[in-house]
């Protein structure tokens, strides 16, 4: 058992491993604690899309652009196993109301440098011939990309290990101990690890680790149900989202007032085809606590919605379903900040469905902040203090 470390990272998903990777690049050798195996939480229960064109103009898109640039570097560094590819992405539009909303959304994105285009019905079907006839058009971004989320998580961990990081798997962090206003150690199911720096990257489970310290994080688990089909010849290039997916992502109250199962479950299309030929189809967005079970209602809604957009999927067999918990925050942005009043305690969580897209820039920014470097992107707006009901440490743990 490891008794002491330069830094402890809690969470073995893509965020925790990206932080570990970039910390080792800066000479810090962390210990990563994961209660299960690597990539068994949200990082192993998500799609493969790195979509820039779904990000809100402003800081959200700025982070995504910076992360996309890092992905190209990681592609060379980590190798072909991560299955990175720039195959483009589109957000399909079904009616004039959606067209107007997405046209405004795309115009604001173009103002800060995103090369996103509005395609009409004919142009859309030229890019994706399998789309249904009722699709009016889409926003299209040729530089949207994809990656294998499990493989990149494992490759980041492999490289971090080579650079000196240590891993404790099947080890649960049960408490964070503090003394005199500074972090002291992490208590685990296998003993305590003393460390002057602790980074909470536990995703949807991040708030629970802070409860005893009197610190509240406004992070809620938001379930996403997805489907995997049998392998088929290439039908889809790149990734497809629906305008309804964007609406569900940024307007969670829609589900509360919905009068149909699709709205109530926050169903929006996310569709891609893996290199193996299997389709990965999503998704729901549900606030149901920490329940990770796939449901008959959710499976049916996601499947029917997908067929509505791509009729050829009606004859494809499902082989697996799964669900992951995305760490949702009220403003849709992650929390990257020191816990005020507890020296040495940092939180990096709350990415919701953008963990894969934002993982590289998150890892780099956290590494820069905790080692005293100037961060590549100003993270002030990602602080805990932006939520009025939290921020200060109440007691030593």
Structure in words:
This protein folds into two domains: 8-44 and 150-219 and 331-386, FAD/NAD(P)-binding domain (3-Layer(bba) Sandwich), CATH 3.50.50; 87-143 and 220-328, D-Amino Acid Oxidase, Chain A, domain 2 (2-Layer Sandwich). The longest helix has 20 residues, at 59-78. Helices cover 30% and strands 24% of the residues. Helix 1 packs parallel to helix 5 (149-162), helix 1 runs parallel beside helix 11 (355-370) and helix 2 (59-78) crosses helix 11 (355-370). With 397 residues, the chain is α/β, with parallel strands linked by helices. A hairpin with a 4-residue loop joins strand 15 and strand 16.
Task: Please specify the SSE layout and strand pairing.
Layout: E1 8-10, H1 14-25, E2 31-34, E3 49-50, H2 59-78, E4 89-93, H3 96-111, E5 117-120, H4 121-127, E6 137-141, E7 145-146, H5 149-162, E8 166-169, E9 173-179, E10 182-188, E11 191-194, E12 198-200, H6 206-210, E13 220-231, E14 239-242, H7 243-250, H8 253-257, H9 261-264, E15 270-273, E16 278-282, H10 296-309, E17 318-328, E18 335-338, E19 345-349, H11 355-370
Parallel strand pairs: 1-2, 1-12, 2-8, 4-14, 12-19
Antiparallel strand pairs: 3-7, 4-6, 5-6, 9-10, 10-11, 13-16, 13-17, 14-15, 15-16, 18-19
Helix pairs in contact: 1-5, 1-11, 2-11
């Amino acid at each position: 058992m490891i008794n002491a470390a330069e830094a402890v990272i809690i969470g073995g998903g893509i965020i925790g491993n990206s932080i570990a990777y970039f910390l080792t690049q800066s000479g810090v050798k962390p210990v990563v604690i994961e209660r299960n195996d690597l990539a068994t939480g949200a990082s192993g229960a998500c799609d493969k899309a790195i979509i820039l064109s779904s990000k809100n103009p402003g800081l959200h898109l700025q982070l995504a652009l910076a992360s996309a640039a890092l992905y190209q570097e990681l592609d060379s560094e980590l190798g072909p196993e991560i299955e990175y590819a720039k195959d483009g992405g589109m957000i399909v539009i079904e009616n004039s109301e959606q067209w107007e909303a997405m046209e405004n959304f795309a115009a604001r994105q173009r103002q800060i440098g995103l090369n996103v285009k509005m395609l009409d019905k004919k142009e859309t079907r030229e890019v994706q011939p399998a789309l249904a006839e009722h699709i009016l058009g889409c926003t299209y971004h040729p530089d949207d990309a994809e990656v294998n989320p499990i493989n990149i998580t494992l490759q980041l961990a492999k490289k971090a290990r080579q650079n000196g990081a240590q891993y404790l798997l099947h080890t649960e962090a049960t408490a964070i101990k503090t003394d005199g206003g500074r972090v002291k150690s992490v208590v685990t199911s296998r003993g305590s690890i003393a460390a002057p720096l602790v980074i909470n990257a536990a995703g949807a489970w991040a708030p629970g680790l802070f409860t005893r310290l009197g610190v509240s994080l406004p992070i809620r688990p938001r379930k996403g149900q997805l489907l995997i089909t049998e392998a088929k010849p290439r039908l889809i290039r790149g990734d497809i989202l629906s305008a309804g997916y964007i609406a569900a992502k940024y307007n969670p109250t829609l589900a509360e007032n919905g009068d149909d199962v699709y709205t109530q479950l926050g169903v929006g299309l996310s569709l891609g085809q893996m290199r193996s030929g299997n389709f990965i189809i999503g998704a729901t967005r549900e606030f149901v606590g920490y329940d990770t079970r796939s449901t008959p209602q959710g499976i049916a809604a996601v499947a029917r919605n997908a067929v509505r957009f791509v009729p050829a999927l009606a004859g494809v067999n499902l082989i697996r379903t799964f669900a992951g918990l995305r760490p949702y925050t009220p403003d849709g942005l992650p929390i990257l900040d020191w816990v005020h009043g507890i020296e040495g305690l940092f939180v990096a969580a709350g990415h919701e469905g953008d963990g894969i897209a934002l993982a590289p820039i998150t890892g780099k920014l956290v590494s820069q902040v905790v080692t005293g470097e100037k961060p590549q992107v100003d993270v002030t707006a990602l602080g805990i203090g932006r939520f009025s009901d939290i921020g200060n440490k109440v007691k030593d743990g």
